[in-house]
């Protein structure tokens, strides 16, 4: 199956009010061309699940500055002052979650399990409103799974069946998000024919990827 779509189709798939997971770490490994398309389109009231909100002029930060995000679930916001400003002004809801906990919540959503138990946050403000359980004499927080309508990922290379190759630190949250959304769209730098990628290179198998789109400046081979 040829999963190649136009960038405009990927942008159009994100509707007002959608819950969207976006890969990346300070915009490294983020699908920046799709994000730019969303910023231009003006889609509204998004719930964004990501590691962070990047910078005001880069990655997810552009959506924040445009006030297209009504809620974000992230591990930190320190590199984007506008996120903090909107949070303090009550213009956007921000859920700050320990980074490892966030990754595990997403993993739980992809695995179809009811949540995770973690000692991280016990006895702090992170505990507020959450169920506390004691296992083996130690207290844990029950953190619920996270899923999204769409996952927007970034890959170095893909074949036309959607098998993805991610490189180095750009793997970050992209891998775990690939299983935790109803529709998975990957922006890629290079598209090749099926069979051109060594199976040992595949980071995310095409079976969980719905669409791939060519990033600007990339190349379609074949």
Descriptive account of the structure:
- The chain has one domain: Glutaconate Coenzyme A-transferase.
- Helices cover 21% and strands 31% of the residues.
- The protein contains 6 helices and 12 strands.
- The protein has helices at 7-12, 32-41, 60-65, 81-88, 99-111, 174-177, and strands at 4-5, 19-22, 46-49, 69-74, 93-96, 116-118, 132-135, 138-143, 148-159, 164-165, 181-192, 211-220.
- The strands form 2 sheets. Strands 1, 2, 3, 4, 5, 9, 10, 11 and 12 form a 9-stranded mixed beta sheet that branches. Strands 6-8-7 form a 3-stranded antiparallel beta sheet.
- Helix 4 links the parallel strand 4 and strand 5 (93-96).
What key attributes describe this structure?
Glutaconate Coenzyme A-transferase; nine-stranded mixed β-sheet; 21% helix; 6 helices; globular; three-stranded antiparallel β-sheet; alpha/beta
Write the layout of secondary structure elements.
Elements: E1 4-5, H1 7-12, E2 19-22, H2 32-41, E3 46-49, H3 60-65, E4 69-74, H4 81-88, E5 93-96, H5 99-111, E6 116-118, E7 132-135, E8 138-143, E9 148-159, E10 164-165, H6 174-177, E11 181-192, E12 211-220
Parallel strand pairs: 1-12, 2-3, 2-9, 3-4, 4-5, 9-11, 11-12
Antiparallel strand pairs: 6-8, 7-8, 9-10
Question: Can you say what the CATH homologous superfamily is?
Answer: Glutaconate Coenzyme A-transferase
Poorly predicted sequence stretches spanning 5 or more consecutive residues: none
Query: Strand portion, in percent?
Result: 25-35%
Number of domains: 1
Q: Topology as H/E string?
A: EHEHEHEHEHEEEEEHEE
How far is the N terminus from the C terminus? Answer: 15 Å
Label the structural class: alpha/beta
How can the largest sheet be summarized? 9 strands, mixed
β-strand number: 12
- In the CATH hierarchy, the architecture is 3-Layer(aba) Sandwich
Mean pLDDT: 94
Gross geometry: globular
User: In DSSP terms, counting alpha (H) and pi (I) runs of 4 or more, how many helices?
Assistant: 6
CATH fold name, please? Glutaconate Coenzyme A-transferase
- Percent range of helical residues: 10-25%
| Computed Rg | 18 Å
CATH class value: Alpha Beta
